[in-house]
Specification:
- By secondary structure, the protein is mostly helical.
- It is about 75% helix and about 0% strand.
- The chain has a two-stranded antiparallel ribbon.
- Helix 13 packs across helix 14.
- The relative contact order is 0.16.
């Protein structure tokens, strides 16, 4: 009996040590990738590459945020543009009130968008079916109408945002500063997505996705989990929208609340692999990079058609996305 207990303790200790080592390696890898990306862009010296890389990282945050509710819990969200736009206009409002600190803008945008996610979730997540998806579409229309008729923050004519002077010594432009902020947010979002997938909350979300009635019968607080996921997802989307005010320097409701961003985000998750932490990351990088190349080499109006083509190809040839292909390659290598 004592030998069995000692063996169990030793095995448990070993597993914890291995898990901690993997966690350390995972964090170190992301820091290293971020540092290498920053160094490469700094050496290239191209302002456009900073803009393009910022856009890619922005979609990484949005894709991970969408996957928390849409991928793990199975509740499709068409309101990405609404929550992102809400975060951006929270930043515009604070700038009008004289608050220009980027960290404060991001924090306030995350809070507001998280509350919006909670309100929509509380009103619609009690029922099953497409009600939540329809409500998220309604949220986009509602927010666009509200912003269009709010003259203090620009209204239909839009708002011009002036970037502050850069005071950080090792960055040569404010675009680099915004890139660094989005890089940190992307790293935090990916870490959060991975943490949720491996946590009890992630297991609960997957259980209610498979069979919500069975999950409730097993004692899983499904409504609380869904509301929590809606808040976290909305907060991340709003946080990603806050720096967009400085990044774009001119924001208007018609472009910010368009369905292009919602469609792009959903496509990236589906192409990358829905319901996994790595899928949205792979999909966002893959699709956003191809879109940026298409914008430069072909036309800026071609990227939506490109997304549609990629979605059809992946849904037919690789329904599990890039994450599924990655899993198959790893399995074949081990075999």
């Amino acid at each position: 009996m004592q030998n069995s207990l000692e063996s169990y303790i030793a095995l448990r200790t070993h597993r914890i040590a291995v898990a901690n080592q993997r966690e350390w390696m995972f964090n170190a890898m992301f820091v290293a990738v971020g540092a290498l990306l920053f160094g490469a862009l700094h050496l290239a010296g191209s302002e456009y590459l900073w803009f393009a890389s910022y856009t890619v990282l922005q979609y990484v945050v949005l894709a991970v945020a969408w996957n928390i509710l849409g991928g793990y819990a199975g509740y499709v969200n068409f309101g990405t543009a609404g929550l992102f736009g809400a975060g951006c206009y929270v930043a515009v409002l604070l700038l009008k009130l004289g608050v220009g600190n980027l960290a404060i803008l991001i924090g306030c945008a995350a809070i507001v968008s998280g509350v919006l996610g909670m309100l929509i979730g509380y009103l619609t997540l009690r029922v099953k079916g497409a009600y939540f998806s329809i409500a998220t579409l309604a949220l986009v229309v509602l927010l666009e109408t509200l912003i269009t008729n709010w003259d203090y923050i620009g209204g239909a004519r839009g708002a011009l945002v002036v970037r502050p002077d850069l005071t950080t010594g090792f960055l040569s432009s404010y675009t680099e500063y915004l890139f660094m902020a989005m890089l940190l947010m992307a790293i935090a979002a990916v870490w959060l997505g991975r943490f949720i997938e491996e946590s009890r909350a992630g297991a609960g979300l997957k259980a209610l996705k498979d069979d919500e009635l069975a999950a409730e019968a097993a004692g899983i607080p499904t409504l609380k989990l869904k509301l929590w996921a809606a808040v976290v997802s909305g907060a991340l989307m709003g946080a990603a929208g806050a720096p967009a005010a400085y990044f774009l320097t001119f924001v208007e409701p018609s472009s910010l609340f368009g369905l292009t961003m919602s469609a792009n985000t959903m496509a990236m998750v589906l192409i990358g692999g829905i319901g996994t932490w790595v899928g949205p990351v792979l999909g966002a990088i893959f699709v956003a990079v191809i879109q940026q190349i298409a914008v430069v080499t072909i036309s800026s109006s071609f990227h939506l058609l490109l997304v549609a083509i990629l979605m059809i190809v992946f849904l037919v040839a690789a329904p599990n996305g890039l994450a599924g292909i990655r899993k198959q390659l790893r399995k074949a290598r081990h075999d």
